[in-house]
Amino acid sequence: MNGLRFLTGTSEMGDQVHEFLLDHFRVMEPITTSIKASRDDVFEFFIDLRDGALKNEKHSIVVYDENDELVGISLNYVKEIDENKENFEEIEPFNPHKDYQDEIQTGAYESKNANRLVTFVENVENHLVPLLTKLDHRHRRVERIFKIDVICVHPSMKGKGLAKELMKRIFEKAVEADCDVVAACATAQASQAIFRKFGFATIREVPFWCFRENHLPIYRDLSDKGLSGKLMAKWIK
């Protein structure tokens, strides 16, 4: 794409990536805006999200424009699988009536909103590996998963094909990393749509109304009218 530089994300870019998450991803992601998460709410969580992807200095992508402004990111990492254990892990039935108050209160962060976000994503991603094995008609075992944690483009780049270009480069990196599957937790309708366009299938879905704290749904009136978080994946081997 003219005027854009696509670089592999490194730890040196950490401050810029963190600011991008706070300034753009935070205010564009529907589940984050629905709980009115402030910069302080997600500050530490976004540091961990950033570091988990950039520390490998191989798999993430950052995009700069001609003015050296950061205009897009894809934060990714490779998950190594214990082939003989995780592929055959028992899948617990989903309980649509569960209350997540205790998990949120005992979460890793001081911020309740950060714990709400993390708890929801962890529940959407629950049983990723055995679900991949069970739902695959060839019953392939998973050894390496290329996991997309964040894909986000600057508002000024919306509709210009940057997200599509990032997806193409994600697959290139997944192949280079010798991964079996590319997977992502998609909570925004826009993310779900682009993953579907690239052949991802939904292997687990958690309706927002099922995610409750003290008996009340946490995510309500989402800006994109989304109904659920989806665990989506595509085999590339």
Percent of residues in β-strands:
15-25%
The CATH homologous superfamily name equals Gcn5-related N-acetyltransferase (GNAT)
Q: Tell me, what is the CATH class?
A: Alpha Beta
Q: Count the helices. How many? A: 9
Secondary-structure element string = EHHHEEHHHHEHEHEEEE
Residue stretches low in confidence (pLDDT < 50, at least 5 long) are: none
| Portion in helices | 25-40%
Instruction: Briefly note the CATH topology name.
Output: Aminopeptidase
GO molecular function: aralkylamine N-acetyltransferase activity
Enzyme class: transferase
Domain N-acetyltransferase: 71-223
Organism: Mesorhabditis belari
Which descriptors apply to this entry?
Aminopeptidase; two-stranded antiparallel ribbon; Acyl_CoA_acyltransferase; 23% strand; 9 helices; transferase; aralkylamine N-acetyltransferase; aralkylamine N-acetyltransferase activity; GNAT_dom; 237 residues; alpha+beta
